[in-house]
Amino acid sequence: MKYLRFVMTNLKRNKTRLLFTFLSIMTAFLMFGLLSALKIAFSAGADIAGKDRLLTLHKVTFTQPLPISYGRQIENIDGVEIVSHQTWFGGIYKDPRNQLPLFPVEPEKHLQIYPELKLLEGNLDDWVSNRQGLLVSKSLADRFAEEWKVGDRIPIQTSIWRKKDGTNTYDFDFVGIYQLGEDLDDGGMLMNYKYFDESRAFGGGTVGWYVLKIANPDDSAQIAKEVDKLFENSSAETKTSTEEAFAKSFAGQIGDIGKIINAVVSAVFFTMLLVVANTMSQSIRERTGEIGVLKTLGFSDSKVMWMVILEALFITLISAAVGLLLAKLFVDNADSVRKYFPIFYIQQKDIVVGLIIAAVMGVIAGLMPAMQALRLKIVDAMRKVA
Amino acid sequence: MLLQINNLHKDFKRGKETVHVLNDLSLDVEKGDFLALMGPSGSGKSTLLNMIGGIDRPSSGSLIFDEVPVHDLSEKGLSQWRADHVGFVFQMFNLMPVLNAWRNVELPLLLTKLGSKDRKTRSLAALDLVGLSDRATHKPGELSGGQEQRVGIARAIVTDPDLLLCDEPTGDLDRKSGDEILDLLQALNEQQGKTIIMVTHDLRAAERAKKVLYMEDGKISTTRNI
Asked: What are phi and psi of B73, to 5 degrees?
């Protein structure tokens, strides 16, 4: 700790250089944070997918509905434990720009199929028993925190499902806030299918897709085959796959975003590594005489080396922390982005990874100049001073 | 006896040629001595000072400091030995420009186990001793050459070393400032009992020492008591 002040003071000796280095690294980590959130936006489906869950969709496109009677037939297949269904509601709150991923589901079965669903606020019984009950994901609840409180009545319009009374506004009781597991957020909303089905003017008795919970994930391929065979040559043929495979193929429609993001981030970090290493080398070269003096005073070679590494570590860690903090602030307040990507947030894991990358970058960038300092002979250094 | 130098050799390679900078040099230094090393450029004064201070190693010969064979110490051992026993005063002062006066003086104390309060107390006391307590928070750029050298001396004595090595301490100062520095070194020798070895080209500076050693061709050619 006693060397910390000296290290910090050394960092500040060339304020312009410090500022530019800080800004470069900070921007890189700001980008890292934003891209991590974007990666989540594209891959969240695969992250929350369970290995023991299958999805059965219309073979042509997932926007085509399936008859509700399929559920009972699927339930009879060996290895299928629970069958439930979901439908795309197409919710809008107040303004068409506020698009909401709202899904009519069967509450009791949904909770059985998604045991990782964790209620952060409110009461699950209210959701199961209240036909107009609405569960809201944490990210959406945070987004509308100023307008929505648990217990409030919320009117939500739909762009698809006109009601029997000719209107397109459904009223809901906001009964709870959920997330999946400890850190996952699907950015959605869940309503009771019964309320949806009895209110809509058309499409009654159909569902969007089925979610199957199976006893043994190893049987997923066999069960998927059996399900699809069951409805072969019917008016609504099906395509069954694991939840993960579906989410991945959905994300894959717009390219392998994860790989693209990783490539961009790696290139940025490599460039940053060179920038920091170059800055530190320059800084150490300018201080050759001072390093000689430190060694003359009794600072050992290794002590001087660690002080140089500490300096590089400091600049990378502080800049990265500020960059990640700014990214978090931006993402937390990026409601306009969330309209298009409902699941848009930075995972704590990614912040930790960012800081680890910064630390590794600091050590590697500091290593070369630190070795310069380590190898520097006092007599050579002092000759340069004279 | 504080320091015994026996048959010291230092050779440098310059291309294919070997240059003998120190040539079978022997010297005894008593505790409380104040030696001035004089001689023409290239005579080996600074090299000898570097050997005594443990910042360069002899090609052969021995250097015994208070029964410690300095020539045999490892790099780490040498660093610790310098921190514990030697204070350096440089011609160009060599203060850290980013640190203020007392933080510069504090530097050698960072290598001790002293806490921050004690380090500050001792640094300020050393500055007081050299008459610069009112400039403690000034950075080197805000001090005159003479004041910078006083800070340099405060830094050299703050750990209370047995030996002070001064490499042309007045070489970069005007006459008045130079005299003040020499007064200070003399006082440290006479009142605090510090052993001082000073390289100088300046006769007036050498006259402040108790003994003047003339070097030529890597050897001590003449010794004169003052």
From this structure: -70, 150
